Amino acid sequence: MKPYKKFWFFAACSTFFVVLIIFCILYLLWTQIAPEIGAILSNIVQDNSFYIFLSATTIFGIWGLWLKGVYNLYILPTVKIADEIVVIQSVNPYHRIKINAGKEVEYLAGRINEVADRYLSLKRDIDNKIQLARKELEQEKDILASIISSLAEGIIVCNLSGTVLLFNKRAEGFLTNIDKKDVHSIKRQFIGLGRDISSIIDKKKIDSAVEELRLKLLHPFECCSTSFSIVRDNEGLLNINIVPVLSRSGEFAGFILNINEATAQLSINGLSAPPSHLPITLGSDCSDFYDFYLFNRAEINPAIQDELLSNITYTVVDTETTGLDPLTDEIIAVAAVRIVNGKLLKNEIFNTLVNPKRAISEESIKIHGIRPEMVEGHPTIGKILPILHKFAENTVLVGHNIAFDMRMFQVKEHLSNVQFTQPILDTLLLSAVIHPSHRYHNLEEISERLGITIKGRHTALGDSFAAAEILLKMVPLLARNGILTLKDAIEASRKTKYAKISY
């Protein structure tokens, strides 16, 4: 039972027992101890029942106000202080407790803030030492990233389950063959960290190549690579050479795809002759510039409900609309960002304006700043939602008050022919889970508590980034409350009062 619930339970029980004792004393006085006095009191009660009732009501009212004052000045502030200590310790060391309470509680908050200042000073010293230690490593990582990015060949690194761990711009250009800014193309392909390579390259070809590599690894003196060709959007062929990646212990850990435009020398069956390559062994002859965590990570459990929140891939979504009624208002902007392996991928975004095919009120323009001329020429929501659906496939959807966005998507299913059936998390509900004593759970209040700066408030992209950063800050706070898996988070969210809001 929460501390404030215990307080009200104790207050109710104590009030009940006090009234019961008073009633018992009066009853005994009336019937047993002093019947004469009881008779006199009975006459007084009968003659002045209204005033006695008014006096009793006043007394109970004053008693209730006194209890509420104690609750507001001492009980609730204590719970808030406990919540905010966790915030300072876990996610935002710059946060300080600001509270209106009894003098004793305010004194306690002041002493905690002093301790937090000393903690921040120590943390800064440690962080500076860590930054100095990482500086040289970061420089080496930048050099490696620049080299990979500037290669004329397309490079994609995958683990054994086909999850993309690394790719360069050349590979993106080869395989998507569409300008990244062209979010309006229904045929658009998405390549990115955490996505499955089979969404772009035929799964049968990938599986066949991986199986061939497994067989070749049994004979280490043979050429250990394989190749195949794929059609590039009817614009020619791409040669794809695959080389295995081995762990330090020699186990098959993943593979690298080397992509080039096809040459004229093609074999009769359409496959190019594989070059002679040896497998790459992690940590053998090269510096540890990168720690590819996903190489050693087990494939995500199909039972996503039992997956740890820190391991899940998320798509954080936000919309801007002409109003707040999903049945009559329209979406005029949609944005989404991705979280993979606990990292916000700021380069993998979905962001577009939407033509609502209706007027945009001046009241809503004052909020989001989107004027009618800005959406002219943009596609309608029926064309945008299928692209967003593909962008968000195989992920958990997240948003702030996302029930509203999902309802807006739902009423457009007849136009888009897609349904968003993924699991959903709402940062509004999660905030109420980890900070039940706080009154406000809007985006600004949560961001201030967790030390997040919102860039572009009331823009779909800005709010998506804010909600994504909030989620990342919330994961360790949820863990401290015993909420570790997606199932835990969903069940806890359903118990909050905000879960009853419907659109």
Shape: elongated
CATH topology tier name of the domain at 304-500: Nucleotidyltransferase, domain 5
Counting DSSP E segments of at least 2 residues, the number of strands comes to 11
The biggest beta sheet, please?
Answer: 6 strands, mixed
Radius of gyration: 32 Å
Order of helices and strands: HHHHEEHHEEEEEEEHHHEHHEHHHH
Write a brief caption for the model.
By secondary structure, this protein is of the alpha/beta class. It is 47% helix and 15% strand. It has helices at residues 3-33, 35-47, 49-90, 103-150, 169-176, 203-217, 362-368, 372-375, 381-391, 402-410, 413-416, 427-434, 443-450, 460-480, 486-494, and strands at residues 154-159, 164-167, 226-231, 237-246, 252-261, 280-281, 314-321, 331-340, 343-353, 396-399, 424-426.
Task: Name its key features.
503 residues; alpha/beta; Beta-Lactamase; Nucleotidyltransferase, domain 5; 6-stranded mixed beta sheet; 5-stranded mixed beta sheet; 15 helices; 11 strands; 15% strand
